[in-house]
Specification:
By secondary structure, the chain is α/β, with parallel strands linked by helices. The strands form two sheets. The protein has a ten-stranded mixed β-sheet, with helices on both faces. It has a two-stranded antiparallel sheet with strand order 6-7. Strand 11 and strand 12 form a beta hairpin. Helix 7 runs parallel beside helix 8 and helix 9 packs antiparallel against helix 10. The protein is globular, with a radius of gyration of 20 Å. About 45% of the residues are buried. The structure holds nicotinamide-adenine-dinucleotide (NAD). The site of nicotinamide-adenine-dinucleotide has 17 residues, from loops.
């Protein structure tokens, strides 16, 4: 039966438009080869470049557009760092649509240098609270406070998600915290994981302090299957894991809630490379694959993954981050041409 989906596309800032267009090119190749799959792209404005014109990085019109779609493909966006500036679009959307699970697969790819061969694990990061709550204030001049909000409700929800994922994989879950120092907030998180674990007796469960986890990701990354952790720890560990397994240019992430999913590269807008046609579009292309998987279009998702692996295995087209000199366009053309 033909399936048709509305996809919100937010191209973003910096290298965002280049890598998002690359992913659309590959999605179009998938549509052409699939016959019964239609993707209607609804392009929305969001990001730093919107602020001057709209006074916000996420105009109401874009929010309304997103609400008419089944999923969102999002390019990276630049977030200003001055106090009082608009909050990151990714953070706003994650909260607005309760996209509570940030899922970042970390795997080795053929002929891509990684710290160890055959790595395959996933970082599941709580996506709606923690230090990303952005609740900060200056108590007195020169004394700043940031609130790290951790709730039982959100911790149970992310733990449940991580256990379900581990059950489908190698049945091993590691929860990462700093409970020796953050006894109340990470105490709540730890208790929630342990409570949910009672429902999953077949899953091997262990835990690590975040500093030890950062070290273990370098020393023995092959020992991980699914890692679950709070927001900022997950952000840091998944960037580290992306480099351990190859390059930020290959790492994709999903933001999943009960009724909506948003898919994006793990990397940011890399402003210094804007418009140079030199960055790796694969992370966004893999994000598009994760989006199709979420929409239950598993064959279409697999086509993208296979095309990426074919191009990397051949090794003829490689962007600078992978030690080559191919352009963004050459990489996306090569991947699109392998879709069949
Ligand atoms: P970044 O990920 O943009 O860039 C860090 C470095 O990673 C780059 O200099 C480059 O060497 C490399 N890199 C990133 N993407 C690459 C790609 N596709 N191919 C090859 N190499 C790549 O991180 P940053 O410099 O910390 O942040 C820049 C901006 O991006 C900031 O404004 C930040 O807030 C924003 N950001 C946005 C998101 C998002 O929209 N979800 C995520 C992270 C950072």
């Amino acid at each position: 039966m033909p399936k048709s989906y509305n996809i919100a596309v937010l191209k973003g800032d910096g290298i965002g438009p280049e890598v998002t267009e690359a992913a659309i090119k590959v999605l179009n190749a998938v549509q052409e080869s699939s016959q019964n799959l239609t993707l209607n792209y609804l392009y929305g404005e969001a990001g730093y470049h919107c602020i001057a014109e709209h006074g916000t990085n996420l105009p109401e019109k874009t929010i309304a557009l997103i609400k008419r779609t089944h999923a969102c493909l999002k390019g990276p966006m630049t977030t200003p760092e001055t106090p009082g500036a608009p909050v990151s679009v990714a953070v706003t959307l994650r909260k607005m649509f309760t996209l509570y699970a940030n899922v970042r697969p970390c795997r080795s790819f053929p002929r891509v240098e990684s710290l160890k061969p055959d790595l395959d694990f996933v970082v599941v990061r709580e996506n709606t609270e923690g230090l990303y709550s952005g609740a900060e204030f200056e108590l007195s001049p020169g004394v700043g406070v940031a609130l790290r909000i951790i709730t039982k409700e959100a911790s149970l929800r992310i733990a449940e998600f991580a256990f379900k994922l581990a059950a489908k994989r190698k049945k091993h879950l590691t929860y990462v915290h700093k409970g020796n120092i953050l006894r109340i907030t990470d105490g709540i998180f730890k208790d929630a994981v342990k409570e949910v674990s009672l429902k999953y007796p077949d899953i091997k469960l262990d835990d690590l302090h975040v500093d030890a986890a950062a070290m273990q990701l370098i020393k023995k990354p092959e020992t991980f299957d699914v890692i679950v952790t709070t927001n900022l720890f997950g952000d840091i560990l998944s960037d580290e894991a992306a480099q351990v397994t190859g390059s930020l240019g290959l790492a994709a992430g999903a933001n999943i809630g009960e009724t909506y999913g948003m898919f994006e590269p793990v990397h940011g807008s890399a402003p210094k490379y804007t418009g140079q046609n030199r960055v790796n579009p694969t992370a966004t292309i893999m994000a598009a694959s994760m989006m199709l998987e979420y929409l239950n279009e598993k064959d279409a998702a697999a086509k993208i993954e296979k095309a990426v692996i074919d191009v990397l295995t051949e090794g003829k087209i490689r962007t600078a981050d992978l030690g080559g000199s191919s352009t963004t366009n050459e990489m996306s053309n090569a991947i699109a041409s392998k879709i069949s």
